[in-house]
Design a protein that fits this description.
Elements (H helix, E strand, L loop, with lengths): L5 E3 L2 E3 L6 E5 L6 E6 L3 H19 L3 H17 L1 H12 L3 H21 L6 E4 L6 E8 L2 E5 L7 H13 L3 E4 L6 H13 L6 E3 L5 H9 L4 E7 L2 H13 L3 E5 L4 E5 L5 H13 L9 E7 L3 H13 L19 H16 L3 E4 L14 E4 L6 H4 L6 E7 L2 H9 L6 E5 L3 H10 L4 E4 L18 E2 L6 H4 L2 E8 L2
Parallel strand pairs: 7-8, 7-10, 8-9, 10-11, 12-13, 12-17, 13-16, 15-16, 17-18
Antiparallel strand pairs: 1-2, 3-4, 5-6, 6-20, 11-19, 14-15
Helix pairs in contact: 1-7, 2-4, 2-6, 3-4, 3-6, 4-5, 9-10
This protein binds nicotinamide-adenine-dinucleotide (NAD).
GO biological process, one term: gamma-aminobutyric acid catabolic process
Keywords: Oxidoreductase
GO molecular function, one term: succinate-semialdehyde dehydrogenase (NADP+) activity
């Protein structure tokens, strides 16, 4: 058995083309694995397997499906260390972040084990005709799941668990940078009792080609994507040809607002979490910091001190808080944002220069006085750089916070609840962290508005993304 091959119909197989690609450890730049690269012929085999397995899966009672998902949570929870190590190896994130991700990833199996038995419907009378309206939710069909490199485990389980709970079969195309974690999950799902063929994994260097191919197969009814807004748009266009149901978790440009009545220590702790969880490589990462001018000096000093205390290094070593970025191009992009902001007048409070040597490292960096014209105010930084600005007027800061095509998450720090709730409601975002730097929770509906996406993952809504509503108009 080789966990670096394709996983189709419960078997580990070479790609039909025999093609493979390398996976790199971002801390050392060493090749850690050579992985089979799927193409369209492999995708066809996976679709055939998914079709067969889905019939078997749908014949099971919701309680049986639920118990298999629950078992997956138990098994993954018992092996968090192994998953965390693999996540660090292929993604680079430090150990605490990797453990946090593995735990979060496992929790989706527990949450959706509980949801699997709660696919509720409705029976009522039509107001005029008096006929019965019977509404029920049914599995939507084979689902294609495309996931990013920043959370190699959690972005997969956040889709697999609700799809299986809903009664669907899935084909996962993990990110090319980080396919190993998803492949390593497969033996665990087998052990939990997931039937062969229900979950298939197709790492590939030809993402565009194989995903487009699958979205043109009439058996595919859902495409659930997490990644950049640009690729999301491409998939929406592909999905349009067969009107495949899309769920899109796309980019963000999160503002973080600290009002003059905030508890500054709480705001600094929240800002650290919102900025530095996953080294800033998160769609939820705080991208723009708006600090009220009356508390700006205190916040900047305390936040910079907290950033300075973080230890950078190989995430597998003890005592390391932050690891490398995922690859050279991400590191170069982050460095470019800093150079651009400084050239336009920003001041470097901390960091700002890349270390020499192996690994895609970039240090925790704080910029103050960042002008609105800086690129990092408008684009996702996706790295450990905090861009600080000040404000004095509530209306003005709400306008600036909403001035983006994105709408995933915003953060608000204020101890005046009347004001704080008013501000939250006026922010054009799918999620708001109020006096908290972390919004992700398997029990909550995660997702964005505007160009941050369509649909929600987690919560009660997460399973509905993989279901269709059927209405029967009946008389009896
Ligand atoms: P990406 O869009 O480059 O890649 C995401 C996935 O799509 C990968 O598996 C990739 O191989 C695949 N892909 C790339 N081109 C494709 C194509 N033409 N057709 C089909 N698949 C294709 O994104 P990334 O760089 O891996 O991840 C970073 C982005 O993801 C950021 O913008 C971030 O905000 C976003 N993200 C969003 C969420 C969320 O829940 N909203 C969560 C994590 C990351």
């Amino acid at each position: 058995m080789d966990f670096t091959n394709l996983y189709i119909d419960g078997n580990w197989r070479e790609a039909a083309s025999s093609e493979r690609f390398d996976v790199i450890n971002p801390a050392t730049e060493e090749v850690i694995a050579s992985v089979a690269s799927a193409d369209t012929a492999d995708a066809d085999l996976a679709l055939d397997a998914a079709e067969r397995a889905m019939a078997e899966w749908q014949a099971k009672k919701p309680r049986e499906r639920s118990e298999i998902l629950r078992k997956a949570w138990e098994l993954m929870t018992a092996r968090l260390d192994d998953f965390a190590r693999l996540i660090t190896l292929e993604n680079g994130k430090a150990r605490a972040d990797a453990m946090g991700e593995a735990t979060y990833a496992a929790e989706f199996f527990r949450w959706f084990a509980e949801e699997a038995v709660r696919a509720d419907g409705l029976i009522t009378h039509a107001p005029a005709s008096g006929a019965r309206i019977v509404v029920q939710h049914k599995p939507a069909g084979i689902s294609v799941l495309v996931t990013p490199w920043n959370y190699p485990a959690a972005m997969g389980t956040r889709k697999i668990a609700p799809a299986l709970a809903a009664g669907c079969a899935v084909i996962i195309k993990p990110a090319t940078e980080t396919p190993l974690t998803m492949l390593a999950l497969m033996p665990l799902l087998e052990e939990a009792g997931v039937p062969k063929g229900l979950v298939n994994v197709l790492p590939s260097r030809h993402s565009g080609r194989i995903v487009d191919h699958m979205l043109h197969d009439p058996r595919v009814r859902v495409v659930s994507f997490t990644g950049s807004t640009g690729v999301g748009r491409t998939l929406l266009k592909s999905a349009a040809d067969q009107v495949v149901k899309p769920a899109m978790e796309l980019g963000g440009n999160a503002p973080l607002l600290v009002f003059e009545d905030a508890d500054i220590d709480k705001a600094v702790a929240g800002a650290m979490l919102a900025k530095m969880r996953n080294l800033g490589e998160a769609c939820t990462a705080a991208n723009r910091f708006y600090i009220h001018e009356k508390v700006s000096a205190e916040f900047t000093e305390k936040f910079t001190a907290a950033m300075a205390a973080l230890k950078l290094g190989n995430g597998l070593e003890d005592g390391i808080d932050v690891g490398p970025l995922v690859n050279a191009s991400t590191r170069d992009k982050v460095a470019g944002f800093v150079e651009d902001a400084v050239s336009k007048g920003a001041k470097i409070e901390l960091g700002g220069s890349r270390p020499n040597g192996k690994g895609f490292f970039y240090p925790p960096t704080v910029l103050s006085n960042v002008p609105e014209t800086a690129d990092c105010v408008h684009d996702e930084i996706f790295g450990p750089v905090a861009a600080l600005q000040t404000f004095s007027d509530e209306e003005d800061v709400i306008r600036r916070a909403n001035d983006t095509e994105y709408g995933l998450v915003a953060y608000v720090f204020s101890e005046d609840m009347k004001r704080a709730m008013g501000v939250c409601e006026r922010l054009e975002y799918g999620m708001v962290g109020l006096n908290r730097g972390l919004v992700s929770d398997p029990a909550a509906p995660f997702g964005g508005v505007k160009q941050s996406g369509l649909g929600r993952e987690g919560g009660h809504e997460g399973m509905l993304e993989f279901m269709e509503t059927q209405y029967i108009s009946a008389e009896w």
